[in-house]
Design a protein that fits this description.
- It is built from three helices and four strands, in the order E-E-H-H-E-E-H.
- The protein is of the alpha+beta class.
- The termini are far apart.
Length: about 110
């Protein structure tokens, strides 16, 4: 997210009395990473990109949006669980094979 200070007053804007930390950081010139779960993302989506803070006007633009939500996290967990299952099964088979190989033969 980036905030650009505007020279002119936009036709439609939202007045912010208490901007959050993300907006304040963007107003200082920094690029800020926000997610779809952040309040500022919802605010921009619902109110539009133009805001007034302390008599100054800003256009806040969101960059490309990547949703690292539950679906990706769940997929990663499932992949690691499957890999763990494969590795533990392989280890058990190897241990059983070694144990059977060391077992004395009964004649």
């Amino acid at each position: 997210m980036q905030a650009t200070k505007l020279a002119d007053k936009p036709e439609n804007y939202t007045h912010l009395e208490n901007p959050d930390q993300h907006i304040l950081q963007a107003m200082s010139g920094d690029e800020v990473v926000v997610g779809v779960q952040d309040t500022v993302y919802n605010l921009i989506s619902e109110q539009g990109p133009y805001f007034e803070v302390n008599g100054s006007y800003y256009r806040i633009s969101l960059g490309p949006c990547v949703d690292w939500g539950p679906s990706l996290a769940s997929s990663i967990i499932v992949v690691f669980a499957i890999l763990g299952l494969i590795m533990s099964t392989g280890s058990l088979i190897r241990l059983l094979a070694l144990k059977l190989a060391k077992k004395p033969q009964i004649k």
